[in-house]
């Protein structure tokens, strides 16, 4: 019994030490892992660590048709998201530094981060939640740029 708990502690510390190495920007890490898996033509990717923001961004990418569904699983040392890939992402990434933008500036940043008009999506954190650039235009609100995908 003691050996099992010691083994579990060692496994847990190894898992946590691997997670701590990549905690700088969890959203950027999640999008980088997703893009690398897409380029490797994988069907499924595991994302760790998770957050509500990462889940919402993945939900938006699912609604826009860039990725398949995702589900959250509990594992030793925390939780992970298992994401189904569709092979439709050309490029995605986090926007650093996280820029605050006004409603009038959305077009300027679309030109900067997206390859063509109406192609791709910017993800913006607003007072009304995390939404796409199109939703922000309809609601006429600004916010903080989080990520892009096309």
Alpha plus pi helix count:
5
Gap from first CA to last CA: 51 Å
Computed Rg: 18 Å
Q: What general outline do the C-alpha atoms trace?
A: elongated
Strand segment count: 8
Instruction: Quickly name the level 1 CATH class of the largest domain.
Output: Alpha Beta
- Strand content bin: 25-35%
Mean pLDDT: 91
Main beta sheet strand tally, sense and closure: 5 strands, antiparallel
Instruction: Examine the coordinates and then state which fold CATH places here, giving the name of the CATH topology of the largest domain.
Output: Ribosomal Protein S8, Chain: A, domain 1
What portion of residues is helical? 40-55%
Pick out the low-confidence regions: none
Class derived from helix and strand content = alpha+beta
Name given to the CATH architecture of the largest domain? 2-Layer Sandwich
**Domain count:** 2
The run of helices and strands is HHEHEEEEHEEHE
Q: How does this structure look, described?
A:
The protein is of the alpha+beta class. A hairpin with a 2-residue loop joins strand 6 and strand 7. The protein is built from five helices and eight strands. 40% of the residues lie in helices and 29% in strands. It folds into two domains: 84 residues, Ribosomal Protein S8, Chain: A, domain 1 (2-Layer Sandwich), CATH 3.30.1370; 55 residues, 2-Layer Sandwich (Dna Ligase, domain 1), CATH 3.30.1490. Strands 4, 5, 6, 7 and 8 form a five-stranded antiparallel sheet that branches. Strands 1-3-2 form a three-stranded antiparallel sheet.
């Amino acid at each position: 019994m003691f050996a099992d708990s010691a083994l579990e502690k060692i496994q847990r510390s190894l898992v946590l030490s691997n997670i701590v190495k990549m905690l700088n920007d969890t959203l950027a890490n999640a999008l980088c892992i997703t893009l690398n898996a897409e380029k490797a033509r994988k069907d499924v990717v595991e994302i760790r660590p998770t957050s509500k923001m990462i889940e919402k961004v993945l939900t938006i990418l699912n609604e826009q048709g860039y990725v398949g569904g995702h589900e959250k699983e509990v594992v030793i040392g925390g939780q992970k998201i298992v994401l189904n890939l569709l092979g439709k992402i050309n490029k995605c990434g986090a926007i650093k530094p996280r820029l605050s933008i006004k409603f009038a500036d959305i077009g300027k940043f679309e030109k900067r981060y997206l390859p063509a008009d109406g192609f791709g999506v910017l993800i913006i954190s607003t007072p009304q939640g995390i939404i796409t650039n199109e939703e922000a235009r309809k609601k006429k609100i600004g916010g903080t740029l989080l990520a892009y995908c096309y």
